[in-house]
Every structure is written in structure tokens, then in C-alpha cells.
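Quick one, C-alpha cells below:
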């Protein structure tokens, strides 16, 4: 029994070590190869949306520890008469919609992967304010580094419920392996090309998570 547990722990450590090394190497190569595209997109964001070009927001990483997620900006800073930001649907421009549909807005997150804050494959990093709303089972999505894409992203992305999304995230945590990561990566490219599951019905992206019966 002890030998079996030790073997599983060793395999898990080897997987995480190999994954981290591959993540950082591929992120470095990707940034180098994509630098002309990143420059062009940065100029387009500046032209269409103004400054700042990059969107930075604190998100929960491994074990819920915060890090600064980096993406291309896709929304304006338009505010209502009260001084508060307008809803996402009113600030999201056609250019921003295109960036999200192609997932080009996510490319600066390669810097987060290079820093070791994210992985290419893993549960997506959501909002800090969601942390106290998770059930203990849902919170297990933070047992791994957050990912550029994940099991939930290739099985519905924003078109599925929060509960289903979290169930898929935890399934990945329980079943992670390098072959599964490769499968998710290939399916991610296919989903991006087909632009599937980008929005929830009636939402610019997805309605905020407010908790569920399991999380209270």
C-alpha cells in the first residue's frame, strides 16, 4: 500500500516537473515567434481602444495564491452618469469581440506561463471574489496551476453552467496526464478555429458566479 502511494506521488511529481519545463520552453519559443503578431495587435488595440494596451487583473493561481493575469484589452473604459463602468456588453467593441473569438487577447498570458504562474493546460483562472463561493470540491480546481486552456474549455467553454465547468475542472485535476494535456491542446486549437462556446446565451461572455447550493 505504501509503495503504491509512493509510486503515485512520484509519478505526479515527475508529471508536474516535466509539464513546468515544457510550459516555460514552449512559452519562450511562442513569444519569440509571435512577437511580430503581438506588436501588430498591440498597435491595433491602441488605435481602437486607446491606452492601456494590456489588461492586468489579480486572479487566483495555484492554491488560490494571487497573481497578475495579463491579456490584451478588449473593452473600452466607458462609464455611465454615476461614474461606474458600463456593463461588459456595452463596453465590448466589435474589435474586442474579434480578439476574444480568435483568443488572440489571451496571447500576453504567455508571459504568465513563462513566469511559472500559469500552465498551458489547467483550470482557467477566474476572479478572486469567487474563492469564498466554492464548495470544498469545487475549490480543488486550484490544486493545479491555472491554464491557458483546459478540460472545461474544450467541453463547452462559456456555453455551459458554472457547476458543469467546475465539475470538469475537478475531473481534470483527478485525471491529469501528459497525453490528456496534448489532447486538450489539439481540441483547443479546433475549438478556437470554429469559435465555439465563446459566449453564454444572452451574455457578452458569461454571467458572474454567485455561488450554488453546493458552495453554501
Amino acid at each position: 500500500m505504501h509503495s503504491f502511494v509512493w509510486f503515485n506521488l512520484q509519478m505526479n511529481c515527475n508529471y508536474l516537473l516535466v509539464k513546468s519545463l515544457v510550459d516555460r520552453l514552449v512559452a519562450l519559443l511562442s513569444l519569440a515567434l509571435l512577437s511580430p503578431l503581438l506588436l501588430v495587435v498591440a498597435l491595433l488595440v491602441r488605435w481602437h481602444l486607446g491606452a492601456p494596451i494590456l489588461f492586468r487583473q489579480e486572479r487566483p493561481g495555484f492554491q488560490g495564491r494571487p497573481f497578475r493575469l495579463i491579456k490584451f484589452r478588449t473593452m473600452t473604459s466607458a462609464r455611465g452618469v454615476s461614474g461606474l463602468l458600463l456593463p461588459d456588453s456595452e463596453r465590448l467593441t466589435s474589435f474586442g469581440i474579434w480578439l476574444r473569438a480568435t483568443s488572440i487577447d489571451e496571447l500576453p498570458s504567455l508571459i504568465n506561463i513563462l513566469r511559472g504562474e500559469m500552465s498551458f493546460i489547467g483550470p482557467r483562472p477566474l476572479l478572486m471574489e469567487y474563492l469564498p463561493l466554492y464548495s470544498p470540491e469545487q475549490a480543488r480546481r486550484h490544486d493545479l496551476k491555472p491554464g491557458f486552456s483546459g478540460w472545461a474549455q474544450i467541453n463547452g467553454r462559456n456555453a455551459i453552467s458554472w457547476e458543469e465547468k467546475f465539475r470538469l475542472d475537478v475531473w481534470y485535476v483527478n485525471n491529469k496526464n501528459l497525453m490528456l494535456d496534448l489532447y486538450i491542446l489539439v481540441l483547443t486549437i479546433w475549438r478556437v478555429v470554429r469559435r465555439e462556446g465563446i459566449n453564454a446565451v444572452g451574455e457578452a461572455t458569461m454571467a458572474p458566479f454567485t455561488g450554488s447550493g453546493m458552495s453554501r
